[in-house]
Design brief:
The complex is a heterodimer of chains A (381) and B (327). With 381 residues, chain A is mainly alpha-helical. Chain A has 16 helices and 8 strands. Chain A has 2 domains: 45 residues, no CATH class; 309 residues, Orthogonal Bundle (Cytochrome-c3 Hydrogenase, chain B). Chain A has a 3-stranded antiparallel beta sheet. A 3-stranded antiparallel beta sheet of chain A has the order 6-7-8. Chain B starts with a helix and ends with a helix. Chain B is an all-alpha fold and 327 residues long. Chain B has one domain. Classes of the chains: A mainly alpha (381), B mainly alpha (327). At the A-B interface, strand 1, helix 5, helix 6, helix 8 and helix 15 of A face helix 7, helix 10 and helix 13 of B.
């Protein structure tokens, strides 16, 4: 039997198990809570979800193919467009991959600046998650609170990079510019003020009885399932797996900083939420340490104008805001990559949706999708 | 009275009621924007008029001026009539709401009973809209609305019975008069809580806005409506908010007490109502939404037994007090 037939046989088997009068409801691609242009077709029996077919690709821009006709430096701005809520983490991963391939030594100051940027961007990304999570359970205010406070971070990053969403700040070998003089003051003020805001979030919604009831014991995922689906990041840590690439394979000097990896116990949506909220605190700790011990020196290494990595291939990964970002680069010694493959967490997590949400209510499916914190730019590429 | 004077007088009352309803709805929409805006560190509308007061007027004009879209495939009759039907209970209730001692359109002995009965009709329009739209989101929303209203109607009505027992009347004016020593919110605190909670569910307000959960089923029953038909649903939602808050003020917060003067009575009654409306908006801007099953559990397993217990205890106390007095 060939593969195609097998697929249909399986489908028929599933169809036999369905209740007689189910309804197909289409969600998206333009739906308020599908986080961009994600579409899924849900088979529902009343309010219960029987199965979900995710449809992806509405934001496909062919970024991997575009890499093949661009030089390593020209491709870098496109990396920002993957997971646009954590653009600097993408940049960091790409730059590290190319640097590893070319064996470029990055100065310590550049490494520290990169860490500050990446962690600030992680906080910004988690704030969007916080707001979206509130919206998903029907509370509108967290969204505005989250975006308002994200503004503080974007203002700091704007001082460095000039941009606010797609930064293009890191270069292969370091960062584009050194930090301005007033940067330190602004960062200190942010570090001082931000815990107050976190406390306010907690008072507003984390402690809310309805909120906890909506999230608790919803979408429980076991460790083994998560391994099979290739989950990573806070989604994986929510189920109690203490796996963080910043600790396991430290990059860009993360081994120097003292921080903890928060993990959940139950593996439900609430745990994934709390893990992210705790990660914000840890990120602030990292930023504080990096800013206090900012080494002097160059902000970039000496790199040739035209990069021609030696023949070879590399897979490099780092901890993005949503999970493991990986760049697999094959070089044939040209100024363009021969092939570039991007591994993004959102792609793995979105495929998990049907598995996680089947058997739950429609309202839960939305919350579960929200708890993966997917970004379609990163999923479709 | 000559018959035509009577007719004119009735028509005038109708016009006043309509004007009042529309102005109230516009004020409430503006108020919601301002209240939610300030709670979310925004300012709300600012540009048209003082503090953006004309904004909702312009919004209403915009909605009324829009093209009337009736999608193909809808059940025409139900689709067209649903936004009209939604106003019938709303308007009817206004005829029985006393604003002060003598300010009421119609005064009948069982006005509370009548108001509660008519309120139950508002399910009909939502079901019609949900069914007639030929849209799955709308259908889910309509069914959710029906389930929600039916299960919350019961605790809401039972919670008012405590008040009726204490006042010994179903006339809203009599009930307010009976509160001249003490507001019923004090002895009937549980009833007040149940009534207010169930009313919020009755008008689909947060945290019970399950029928129009925009993150799940986009806008629920009114997803296919636009222009003035949408405006009808939108206005009815706010007028209903006013009605339930006004009822709560009448039943539990002493209506126009301590004033018997019509002008001051109306003012204090509206003030009490608006305080309750503010609380509803406060809840709206800070609370997340229940899930359907949790919400049903809350209605049937918490509110209903609580309201029955409240009714029972009130009945026993009223009986005992009566016996002692008669002795």
């Amino acid at each position: 039997m060939d593969n195609e037939n097998m697929f249909y046989e399986e489908q028929e088997l599933v169809l036999d198990d369905l209740p007689k009068d189910y309804m197909e409801v289409n969600f998206g691609p333009h739906h308020p809570s599908t986080h961009g242009v994600f579409r899924f077709i849900a088979k529902v029996d009343g309010e219960k979800i029987i199965s979900i077919d995710p449809v992806i690709g509405y934001l496909h821009r062919g970024i991997e193919k575009m890499a093949e006709s661009r030089t390593y430096n020209q491709f870098k701005p496109l990396v920002d467009r993957l997971d646009y809520t954590g653009a600097l983490n993408n940049e960091l991963c790409y730059c590290l991959a190319v640097e590893k391939l070319m064996e470029i030594e990055v100065p310590e100051r550049a490494q520290a600046i990169r860490v500050i940027c990446a962690e600030l961007n992680r906080i910004a990304g988690h704030l969007i998650f916080f707001g979206a999570m509130g919206l998903e359970v029907g509370a509108f205010t967290p969204l505005l609170f989250g975006f308002l406070d994200r503004e503080l971070i974007l203002n700091i990053l704007e001082m460095l990079a000039g941009g606010r969403l797609t930064f293009n700040y890191m270069t292969i070998g370091g960062v584009r510019e050194d930090v301005p003089d007033s940067f330190r003051d602004k960062l200190d003020r942010f570090i001082k003020n931000f815990p107050v805001k976190l406390k306010r979030y907690k008072e507003l919604i984390t402690g809310n009885e309805i909120f906890i009831n909506r999230l608790k014991n919803v979408g429980i995922l076991k460790k083994e399932d998560l391994f099979n689906w290739g989950a990573s990041g806070p989604t994986l840590r929510g189920s109690g797996v203490r796996f963080d690439i910043r600790k396991v394979e430290p990059y860009s000097g993360y081994e120097k900083y003292d921080f903890e990896i928060p993990v959940g116990t139950n593996g439900d949506v609430l745990d994934r939420y709390l893990v992210r909220m705790e990660e914000i605190k840890q990120s602030i700790r990292i930023v504080e340490q990096a800013a206090n011990n900012l080494p002097s020196g160059d902000y970039t290494a000496k790199v040739p104008k035209i990069l021609k990595p030696p023949e070879g291939e590399i897979y490099y990964r780092n901890e993005g805001t949503k999970g493991e970002i990986g760049f697999y680069i094959v070089s044939k010694g040209d100024k363009n990559p021969y092939r570039l493959k991007i591994r993004t967490p959102s792609f793995s997590h979105i495929n998990m949706l049907s598995f996680a949400a089947s058997g739950n209510y429609i309202a839960d499916a939305i919350v579960i999708l929200g708890s993966f914190d997917t970004v379609m730019g990163s999923c479709d590429r | 009275m000559v018959w035509w004077i009577e007719l004119l007088w009735s028509l005038l009352k109708l016009v006043i009621a309509f004007a009042f309803i529309f102005i109230t709805a516009l004020i409430l929409i503006w108020m919601l924007r301002k209240v939610m805006g300030h709670m979310q560190y925004r300012r709300g509308p600012l540009h048209h008029g003082p503090h953006g007061m004309w904004q909702t007027v312009f919004d209403a004009i915009k909605l009324l001026g829009k093209e009337d879209i009736i999608p193909t495939g809808v059940d025409r009759w139900t689709f067209i009539w649903a936004p009209i039907v939604v106003f019938i209970p709303t308007l009817t209730i206004f005829a029985f709401l006393p604003f002060a001692e003598k300010i009421t359109a119609t005064n009948i002995e069982i006005s509370l009973f009548f108001v509660l009965a008519v309120m139950g009709l508002s399910i009909l329009s939502l079901l019609m809209a949900g069914w007639g739209s030929n849209n799955k989101y709308a259908l889910l929303g309509g069914l959710r609305a029906a389930a929600q209203m039916m299960s919350y109607e019961i605790p809401m009505i039972i919670s008012t019975m405590g008040v009726v027992l204490m006042a010994g009347s179903m006339n809203l004016i009599e009930i307010v008069r009976a509160q001249n020593h003490m507001w019923y919110a004090v002895p009937q605190i549980i009833g007040f809580f149940i009534f207010f909670t169930a009313s919020l569910a009755e008008i689909n307000s947060t945290p019970f806005d399950i029928p129009e959960a925009e993150s799940e089923i986009v806008a629920g029953f009114n997803v296919e409506y636009s222009g003035f038909r949408f405006a009808a649903f939108f206005l009815a939602e706010f007028v209903n908010l006013f009605i339930v808050c006004a009822l709560a003020a009448l039943l539990f917060l002493g209506g126009w007490q301590p004033f018997t003067n019509p002008v001051w009575g109306t003012v204090i009654f509206l003030a009490k109502t608006y305080v309750l409306i503010f609380i509803a908006m406060w809840i709206r801007s800070t609370f997340p939404r229940f899930r359907l099953d949790q919400f049903m559990d809350f209605g049937w397993k918490v509110l209903l037994p609580l309201s029955l217990a409240n009714l029972f205890i009130t009945g026993v106390i009223v009986l005992v007090v009566d016996k002692i007095r008669s002795v």
